[in-house]
Automatic annotation (TrEMBL):
This is ABC transporter ATP-binding protein. Residues 298-328 are annotated as: Disordered. PANTHER family: ABC TRANSPORTER ATP-BINDING PROTEIN. It comes from Sphaerisporangium melleum. Keywords: Antibiotic resistance, ATP-binding, Nucleotide-binding, Transport. One of its GO terms (cellular component) is plasma membrane.
Length: 328
């Protein structure tokens, strides 16, 4: 394997569906061996980008290369494996039979027993594929993506149907796969997964890259600090404090996102409102909201009470409109 070449290269890629621009001049290079998380709110262009990379959707303009060849050629060569967000499994065959059949279509597949172990399916090898739980079926889709021993693995919301323990086991398998020098690109709404498992995070919004870097770089790019305090009574005035870009109220607790925490805290002190004060660097969710102006669809635990968020205006380019994606 030539580790000097990019696994993925997109240059000036656009894709529209009628009047809707789903991908808007996207440029993205992914070197071999990286694990990259693709983040963005619904309609950001994630699923369309993945579809273009898999050769399932042709771009309107631009160039797409996977290991220096068109995506369809990379798929035929067995260098690209994919795990879709959804998809049915063939009925009336066992998990082991299904994996054996798929592995047999590749020139140099992984041994079936190794794939079963990596996907935590060894104990289910003789179970019929149409008699699996949602989480078990998702692990089978993961195993099918691994069967050909691809150099690039593309995963669309890979842990959406898994519980906490199953997600932990899934990422253990992914780390073992990545340790073999493989490249992984995954989309997710679970921000903690991107924070913990990705070497690099690419944030999309309205079909464009609005941030690209490691988790610390993304947080630093957002230039935010969170200020927490206990509040009573009217809280509408908090949005007007110096540096505050957004306010969340959860019960009696207020969370302020601020670009100037010193000025925010001084204003709170002058107002006599410093109660149980906490000041902390922004987390990845804070950075996500700051960069896109929108909450992630899922990923953060729902608040105990309704959340009120003050308007936030991003300075990032916002040309084009959101893509037609139901779960992007």
């Amino acid at each position: 394997m030539d580790m000097t070449a990019n696994a993925v290269s997109l240059a000036g890629v656009t894709k529209s569906f009628g009047a809707v621009r789903a991908v808007d001049g996207l440029d993205l290079d992914i070197p071999q061996g990286q694990t990259v998380a693709l983040l963005g709110p619904n309609g950001a262009g994630k699923s369309t980008t993945i579809s273009v990379l898999l050769g399932l959707t042709a771009p309107d303009t631009g160039h797409v290369q996977v290991f220096d060849r068109p995506p369809a050629a990379a798929v035929r060569a067995g260098r690209l494996g994919a795990m879709p967000q959804e998809g049915g499994l063939i009925p009336r065959v066992t998990v082991g039979e299904l994996l054996g059949f798929v592995a047999g279509t590749y020139a140099t597949p992984l041994p079936v027993q190794e794939v079963l172990a990596m996907a935590r399916l060894t104990g289910l090898a003789r179970r019929r594929a149409d008699r699996l739980s949602g989480g078990q079926a998702q692990r089978v889709r993961f195993a099918l993506a691994l069967a050909g021993d691809p150099d690039l693995l593309i995963l669309d919301e890979p842990t959406a149907a898994l519980d906490v323990e199953a997600r932990r086991e899934f990422w253990d398998g992914m780390r073992r796969f990545a340790a073999r020098g493989k490249t992984i690109l995954f989309s997710t709404h679970y921000l903690e997964e991107a924070d913990e498992h990705a070497d690099r995070i690419v944030v999309l919004d309205r079909g464009r890259v609005v941030a690209d870097g490691g988790s610390r770089e993304i947080k630093r790019l957002a230039a935010l600090t969170t200020v927490g305090l206990t509040v009573t009574g009217d809280t509408s005035w908090l949005a007007g404090l110096p540096g505050v870009t957004a306010v969340e109220i959860r019960g009696r607790r207020a969370k302020l996102r601020s670009t100037d925490s010193d000025a925010t805290v001084m204003a709170l002190a002058q107002a006599g409102a410093v109660r149980d004060l906490e000041v902390a660097p922004a987390d990845l969710e804070d950075a996500f909201i700051a960069l896109t102006g929108r909450h992630a669809a899922v990923g953060a635990s729902p608040p105990d009470s309704p959340t009120r968020t003050a308007p936030f205006t991003t300075t990032m380019p916002a040309a084009g409109t959101a893509g037609e994606e139901s779960a992007a």
